[in-house]
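pinging the channel bc i need a second pair of eyes. not urgent but kinda urgent?? the chain im working w is below, pasted from the shared doc
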Amino acid sequence: MKRALALAALLAIAACSKSNSGGTGPGPTGSLDVTITAPAGVTAKVSIITPNDSVITISSSQTVNGLAPGDYVVRASPGVTADPIVSIAYTGAITGSPATVTAGQTANATVTYTTPRASSGILWVANAIGYQLSGFSSSNLSATGAPAPATRIGSGTSGSITEGSVSVAVDSSGGIWYANNSDTLRYYAAALIASPTNAAPTRRLISTSLQYAIALAFDAAGDLWVADQAKGQVSKFTPSQLAAGGAQAPTVVLSNVFGTIKRPWQIAFDSHGNLWVASYGDSSISGFSPSQIAASGSPLPFAGISGSKGISDCLGIAFDAQGNLWVGTLSDTISKFTPDQLTSVGSPTPSVILKVSSSPIGMAFDNSGALWVAGYENNKLMQFTPSQLTTTGSPTPTITISNNGNSISVANGITFSPAAPNLPIR
């Protein structure tokens, strides 16, 4: 068994190294000129997906030279304003994608940011028994208190459309999908949630492959991945399926083998496109490379953590800008694992262990690198600054946001809209 896991790790690491080798190759090359236009004070983030699925990221107009011939997909992450917590986002309009690069020639593409995105500048909180999805603005989160959310979805009372929500994910337009431990995912377009609403969702996606959908995460291609704690599976739905809604069968289903996906509670992607799954039922975290998640099956993870201090009854996971994996547990700890500890299957010792209160489940990093944590039991949001994340201990939150009329009530998933620009592509 150990030999099989080690072999799987070596093969997956080799595949990841190949997929991140860039767009250049042997023989004649071409160029891609990308023109980026944005209002003053708005920082762009544009990704160029190469034919071998590596990613080139730029933030201003640039001609990228030495590219192997082929089709290059240009994607625009939100252009963002400067803010210590969460930015206002601008959507980028793209022309010329995919761009076909030929030897000795220069292809062209443009990205234009013009209008602020509705419902941006928000930290979304999914409340399991709060009967609403709460949206807190940067000003809401700037000081300790119990502010009323800047926006919300749902009535805040029993019978609300958002009752039982446990996870929320933001798409490239600023709309949100949420899961509520059922076979149905619900979507709200950005314009509908810029202010408080009790409206029905824009669309629903229903799948017989889902039973208790508990966690959501987008990959760089805009696919939505869904963890199902009852079936011990992680499923993928494509952008076209999300746009259509209705009854859908996932295009990829990853199943449990040897406890690798056993009662999955949270999922996250790192900057290399690896999918990480935290399994509460097995107190383990499994990593799957892009090649391992390209088709349905029960792959052995290329890397994983099992038996380490700081992951018993793991509930939440999040990656920071440096590629460190942070793990929240039912036993009130948050542990840090460095990128070097995430390359093989083993039981590494966390580089930092924080003792915090109230079973941290939801975790998200803001623009400053501070970690926000949703307390599952104390109905609070807590902020820990970057300096508090460097040393093992029991830090006091620098900012604490308390419940106000079911705004934070058994909070599970939290996410910023938009995500901090230095975090992994989503």
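so Residues 2-19 form the longest helix (18 residues). and Confidence is low (pLDDT under 50) at residues 1-24. — does that match what u expected or am i reading it wrong
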